[in-house]
């Protein structure tokens, strides 16, 4: 029996990341077929999206991550910092335009006070109590604990009390310690990132998980990353934690422009699609696999739905992080265009909320 067959039968724990990396040697259509069968058993031909707004309150950062083109530096000499009122105004406008979620992540600002973050989220909730706040990646939370010498539990509980509903998956990058040291030495390490999400889940909350790939990592590093996430989700299942956990896994394609990382050649579309398919095969205990169109490009994200993905993210409205590094995602995409493109590919567009409750299903193209 071959490796793929054994993995599909559930023998994943019998293999090391290096051994599982041999899945990449399979024909792309064989991997895609296996991954698609899994996504079809979960979601049939549905492709999920939401109406959301990305807001990045500042790009002034205490850290210097080599892969990052967003934070202010000599590669991006345009520092900015929004006031709380400016953030609230953007959230209100987004809600009035139909957004169900605001995704608020920022740089690690060196002078903001701790209370600034809590006041910002409270102000957003007071202005638009119906909107879902997805905010503060694990690296940001870790930064607050270190900068203000606060216990992790206090910071997490303060964020929940101030209105944060779920955590985004950013800051995970690649968990391998040697690769991570080159990418983002100085910010939360892999164990810390995972610890923060485990605590969040323990409190009955949902989060996402990302993986930045296509830079200096090797295939087995991607597999190792996936397996660490799989292990956390398995532990939750064994503890019968029904409330919290990972909603979605999001492989983010590294963008090459305007940063300090001297990366190898960009991965091919085939390599990207194989990575998506392998993620669906290995992470069957994480419900959703997101092909984040702002990172992959819209067309490739649609194709990825045939390779195990079931989600496109959302309309975004305005995007700063990926586009700063060269992605064509600055102005988001309209709801109408999202629906049209999904239908045109033969899928069923399903508008969802942040926790994947279905809000509206659009009729499939005949």
How would you explain this protein's 3D organization?
The chain has 366 residues and is an alpha/beta fold. The chain has one domain (3-8, 15-346): Aldolase class I (TIM Barrel, Alpha-Beta Barrel), CATH 3.20.20. Helix content is 42%, strand content 13%. The chain has 15 helices and ten strands. The strands form three sheets. It has a four-stranded mixed beta sheet with strand order 8-1-9-10, with helices on one face. The protein has a three-stranded parallel beta sheet with strand order 2-3-4, covered by helices on one side. A three-stranded parallel beta sheet has the order 5-6-7. β6 (245-253), α11 and β7 (288-289) form a beta-alpha-beta unit. α3 packs across α11, α4 (84-96) runs parallel beside α5 and α6 crosses α9 (190-202). It starts with a helix and ends in a 5-residue tail after the last strand.
